[in-house]
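ok so for the tutorial part 2 we go from a plain amino acid sequence to predicted structure tokens. step 1 is just haveing the sequence, like this:
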Amino acid sequence: MDWLMNNWGTLAVGLVVAAVVALIIINYVRKKKQGQSTCGCGCADCPMKHKCHEE
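step 2 — the prediction. this is what the tokens look like for a chain of 55 residues:
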């Protein structure tokens, strides 16, 4: 129990970071399933647009 009390701050920060990473991954998967761009920019001028969205 001493260890937990001494390291509660580190554990809290670790949980927050893990939650943020999980939310980013969930958002990425949802966009990918909807067929949206996951790179954060539009596909009109992207030289790799044919690799992401094969026709």
